[in-house]
Amino acid sequence: MNITLQVNGVPRAVDVDPRMSLLDLLRERLGLIGAKKGCDHGQCGACTVLIDGRRANSCLALAVAMEGSEITTVEGLARGDELHPLQAAFIEHDAFQCGYCTPGQLCSATGMLGEPGPSAVTEDILVDPDLTPAEIRERMSGNLCRCGAYVNIVSAIAGTVTGVAR
Question: Is 58:48 a contact under the CB 8 Å cutoff?
């Protein structure tokens, strides 16, 4: 099947097998290897990308269903040589060790910063809470880190929250 989508701001027309996942399209057909195949069941978050600005597990999304969508991978977060603020914060806070989960963590955090509303740890569900470390941990709980760099990941995200409109 022929589909057209935007990947990191570039229009792409590709022929895909209807069974192909978005992750496989990105890695195997488009050469964008930032998103990782971790569990291939949507449980680890290593494959997280942004689909129309919302974070999603690309291993669970069918490529054919992405017709007309805007896909942003970790490769598309930076603007030329200028790192995305979260990428710079991850470096500054040493928020990665082996780096395997880092692309998914970065895409998830980028999407999370634009998601208003309460989470499971919000005390007053009628207000849009501040992104405290507890809120960040809860909202990022779908992204696992095998190395255990969670403290630094939360610090990096918290360091970028000031001035972020949600």
Answer: yes
- Distance CA(128)–CA(118), nearest Å, equals 6
Alpha-carbon distance of 24 to 30, in angstroms, equals: 9
HEC profile for 90-129? HHHCCCCCCCCCHHHHHHHHHHHCCCCCCCCCCCCCCCCC
Report how far apart, in Å, the C-alpha atoms of 59 and of each of 81, 119, 144, 155 are: 29, 24, 15, 28
Q: Which residue, among 156, 162, 85, 166, has the nearest Cα to 127 in the 3D structure?
A: 166
Instruction: For the beta carbon of residue 61, count every other beta carbon within 10 angstroms.
Output: 20
List, for residues 80-94, the tens digit of each pLDDT value. 999 999 999 999 999
> Whole-prediction pTM value?
0.93
